[in-house]
Amino acid sequence: MKHSIVQNLIAGGASTILHVLLVLLLIFSFEMPTEIRQFGQPEVEIVQATVIDEDLVLEEMARLQEAEDKQRAAEEERQQKLDEQLEKSQQELARQEQELLDMQERAKLEAEKRKQEAEQEQQRLKQEAEKEQQRLKELEQQRIEQEEARKQAELERQKAEAAKQQAEAERKAAEQAKQKAEAEREAAEKAREAAEAKRKAEEEAQRKAQEEAKRKAEEEAKRKAEEEAKRKEAEAKRKAEEEAKRKAAEEEAKRKAEAKRLAEAKARAEAEASLQRQLDAEAKQRTQKRIAGILDTYGLQIQQRITRYWTKPANAQTGLLVTLEVKLIPGGDIRSVRVIKSSGSEIFDRSAENAVYKAAPMPMPSDPDAAQKIISEGIEIYFKPE
Amino acid sequence: MAMRLIRSLALVAVFFMPFQAFAVLKVEITGGSDSALPIAIVPFGAEGQKAPEDISSIIRNDLESSGRFAPLDNQDLVSRPTEQSQVNFADWRLLRSEGLVIGKISSQDGENYQVQFQLFDVYRGQQLAGKRYQVPASGLRALGHQIADVIYETLTGEKGIFSTRLAFVTQITAGDGKKRFALQISDADGANPRTVLQSTQPIMSPSWAPDGDQLSYVSFENGKTEVFVQQLLSGQRKSVASFEGINSAPAWSPDGRKLALTLSRNGNPEIYVLELANGDLIRVTNNAQAIDTEAVWSRDGNDIYFTSDRGGRPQIYKVSANGGRAERISFEGNYNASPDLSPDGSKLAMVHGTNGGFYIAVQDLKTGSMQVLTESGRAESPSFAPNGQMILYATEQKGSGVLAAVSVDGRIHQRLSESGTVVREPAWSPLKK
Amino acid sequence: MNRYKFSALLVALFLLNACSGNATKDGTDDVLVEERNGASTSGVSGDGVNGSDLGAEASVIVGEDGYTGSELNDPSNPLSNRVIYFDYDSASVRPQDQSIVEAHAAYLGKNPNLTVRLEGHTDERGSREYNLALGERRALSIRQLLMLQGASAQQFRVTSFGEERPAVDGSDESAWSQNRRVEIIYIGR
């Protein structure tokens, strides 16, 4: 049962919402007739809802009335508040208006003041410019004056310098005289010192001589020792060099022997190759001779055969000559017949070509070299009437 | 250094040697065979009405008769194509035939015939000549000769003479023992003879006018010699020389306006020139002791060759057509007569008598050398073919006169008629214009 | 080498015989010209063949027969011998024939109203035209002899037939010797 209550409650809630929606819908329906179609779909649902909860509607209506009354009271209250607020705003608005008027007045005054100030500023700038002009003039005057003064000072400084140089020259002459006297004094002193030095030098020389003798003896001993060492070293070196030389000589000999051997081998090889070449050449020559011999015979064979098949034009003039190039295929058949040089007579040329064609297949030499040569190089055939 | 040079030279020598030894094989062919050119002439294909003439046979006979062609026997033909698409050249090469002739003949009504032929170069597989004709049945034989001319000219480079005609004299002995004579004309192959004049009296020396439309000849019909000119198509004829004594040996000038004649009207045979238009006569020779006869015009019409025995025996002389001093032309032997000049004017054919025989000989007018062309000793009346390649002449066989021909080089001999009827004095027509 | 059957020729000759029988009469010189219409032939397209190529030449028939004899036909009379023979290529009367010529000369001299035709002939050898002239030369040679021995120039007609009318057919010396001749033919009073 609880469930049904909850269900009723839910249903009632849903129904209320639906009714609110319905009312809103009705309001909107009248106010916005053009938008009916937009709600066409929910309308169907609403009808269904109405069908389901018909009893609840009256109840719901009373409740709605009550809510409505409450709402109206609240509204009246809210309206009153709004009126108060409106009054307040109007007062505020008046105040703001007054303020605006004040501000406008102030702005006017301010503008006037700024104008005066600008005029003053203009005046001030003018004065300043004039002042600057004056100042620049003054500065120029000052600069000219300063230049004059500087030139004057320079002149005076040069004069002072000349006087100073005079004084210096005088000071130097005095100095030179003083130096001369000093030099004489120093010379005397030096003579004395020289004598002293000479004595001391002699003593020193004696001492040094003794020392030298001793040093020399020592040096001699040292030298001798060194020489001995050197000699020994040279000896060792010489020996080493000799050894190296000997070894080099041996190597050279060995190398030479090898080279000789190689040269001999090469010469032998060359000789053999040469012999081979000669043999080859001879063989080739023999082959050529053999082929030439075969070709001579073959040429006669061909000549006889073609002559037999040549139906010479009866009116062929003496002096006609046609040259044909004939290529054969291995069986002796014709690969091609070409007029290399025409006789000038189409009929004579044709008779010659026909003779070759009719003579085919040509005999071929049994020697493969000769046959190969004929196939690769072709045959040149000359036809003459007489 | 020297060694190295020698060595490199040796190397060069070795290097070049092969080229010397390995030159391309060169073969020179001279002479060749004088035999006839092998040619295949396939019987023409026939459609529709049967033709009264076998054109391919006419062509075959013409070419064969020239001695320059050797047509394959029909039974040796590997195939019988009638048009190009049916030709397999390899087959014909096997037969070693250089030329191939095929053709077709067709007729709807048996009156008019369409004929076509093609001549092929067998080894190159190319057409060398081909033509299509439309002829009446009566023109088929002539057309065959015409096609043979085309083939002949294509393959030899010379004019064909198969469409030309021969004139000759025939003689038969009738049942009553009397002789009948006829002047006849035939095709160049001797076939299709037709009589243009018949007589109980001898007829002599037919001579063709250069236009090929007229013949001049000597007729004894009035009991003595008389020279006539006859129009061949109409049969109309006219006696142009009927003087006292001999009227004979007519020869047309190259322009066809004059006739050289032998007349003995003044007691001795002399050469005269007759102006055909007005009958004016000019005497050319004047030698009372000698026979002057058998005039032949030079090609330019300025001179006349003739036979004269003014030297004691007949020889050939030359004299200006206007008369004057004659120049002896032939010198070989003691009998030379019946001159005929080659179409190119370079050779003189004549009857050459020696050792009791008479032979056809030809003399080169430039070199003066003479060549005897025939073997039988009974030859006479030589007449050049219009292409200058053959000389037609009369000879005897089994006691009867026959016609024969020999090529100017003496290599080709042919017989144009069989014995039975006496046939003599042939004259070969000019080429048709 | 190449042999032609002349059957067509024979046919033509056969026709010729048939025609000539009607066309010629003894003693007349009738000439019959037989025309065939050459215009009936038409050409070959392209390369023309004219009428003469088609064998349309017209045929002409002419003829003459011999002559009448004279009363001088007594075989014992030398005048019955009226043929004089010659050597080859010669126009000279042989000695053995001189008496015959003399007899005819005397006869003609006694009968000036008689005329004779002298027909010269040769054998078949050599040029026909030359032989025609040679025949005339022989006839003239006889005429000269006859005139030298009494006859007068007006009594002669001289004709040569050359080799065209041999007395004997044949190609041997026997025939030739009989053909090299001059016939003396008395043609009227």
Note the main attributes of this structure.
heterotrimer, B: 433 residues, mainly beta, Rossmann fold, Neuraminidase, 2 domains, six-stranded mixed β-sheet, four-stranded antiparallel β-sheet, 4 helices, 44% strand, globular, C: 189 residues, alpha+beta, 60s Ribosomal Protein L30, Chain: A, four-stranded mixed β-sheet, two-stranded antiparallel ribbon, 6 strands, disordered N terminus
Describe the structure.
- The complex is a heterotrimer of chains A (386), B (433) and C (189).
- Chain A is mainly α and 386 residues long.
- Helix content of chain A is 83%, strand content 5%.
- Among the domains of chain A are: 2-102, no CATH class; 310-383, 2-Layer Sandwich (Fusion Protein Consisting Of Minor Coat Protein, Glycine Rich Linker, Tola, And A His Tag, Chain: A, Domain 2), CATH 3.30.1150.10.
- Chain A has helices spanning 2-31, 40-52, 56-309, 346-359, 368-377, and strands spanning 322-328, 334-341, 379-384.
- Chain A is flat and about 145 Å long.
- The two termini of chain A are 147 Å apart.
- Mean pLDDT of chain A is 83; it is low at 29-52.
- Chain B is mainly beta and 433 residues long.
- Chain B is 12% helix and 44% strand.
- The model of chain B is unreliable at 7-22 (pLDDT under 50).
- Chain C is α+β, with helices and mostly antiparallel strands and 189 residues long.
- Chain C contains 4 helices and 6 strands, in the order αβββαβαβαβ.
- Chain C has a 4-stranded mixed β-sheet with strand order 3-6-4-5. In chain C, strands 1-2 form a two-stranded antiparallel ribbon.
- In chain C, helix 3 links the parallel strand 4 (115-121) and strand 5 (156-162).
- In chain C, helix 2 crosses helix 3 (128-148).
- The longest helix of chain C is centred in the last third of the chain and has 21 residues, at 128-148.
- The termini of chain C are far apart.
- In chain C, 41% of the residues are buried.
- Classes of the chains: A mainly alpha (386), B mainly beta (433), C alpha+beta (189).
- Chains B and C meet through helix 2, strand 7, helix 4, strand 8 and strand 9 of B and helix 1, strand 1, strand 2, helix 3 and strand 5 of C.
